[in-house]
Amino acid sequence: MQAPLQQLFDRGSLWLGNQPNHAADQASFVTTGQLELDQALGGGWQSQRLHEIQVPQFFVGELALVAPALMRATQQKRPIFWLSPPAVPYAPALAQLPLAESERQQAQHIVLTPSRPADALWAAETILHSGQAGVLLLWAEQPSAIAIRRLHLAAAESGAYVFILSPWQAEEARSYATRLRVHLSQDSVTGNGQVQWQLLKRTGGWPLRLARQALPKWPGK
Fold first, then answer.
1. Which terminal Cβ of the chain has fewer Cβ within 10 Å, N or C?
2. What is the rounded distance in angstroms from the CA atom of residue 191 to the CA atom of residue 203?
3. Can you give the pTM of this predicted structure?
4. Ordered structural domains, the chain, with CATH
5. How far apart are CA 133 and CA 40, in angstroms?
């Protein structure tokens, strides 16, 4: 006999479309630095999952969303891998992260710039299978569904926070835990830049858009 629906909900075997799924271990989450986004994601970024951040152009505040994950990796003495970034990571900004001096000195940032997209995907998969990474950031223009599936499986074994940063992509089924699209606009009164988060996919909830807000700031500024 099937268990009553309520028992299935209580065990976390089922979820309601308008409610986040809290069955996951909260210790595996790290904040995005944005309260409403954390709530929509059930706690923030989850480790051992593949998260996509789609941007209309790079460096519009998206790195502020992953800064807390960089801090956690540093505190855990695990290296941070930057794969095919569009620019060299800005060392003075990384030095501003609110870490203890001993933690800051032991930070490991490894930048790899493969010449071909296929090599970058191979490097990402290899790094994740090694189990050494704390965070992996991969910039990819149009990764294939097969490549994403392979990275999804590798991320599940890695213990790392894994992010794919890309231009806007087609809204087709992909093996991501999170698909976040960044929309930019200006406040009609002040003229200041604003951002709106659109979650195309999230664990334990339907897609949604959050209210517009000011561009996120890098921690320590």
1. N
2. 34
3. 0.87
4. 29-87+106-214 (3.40.50.300)
5. 26
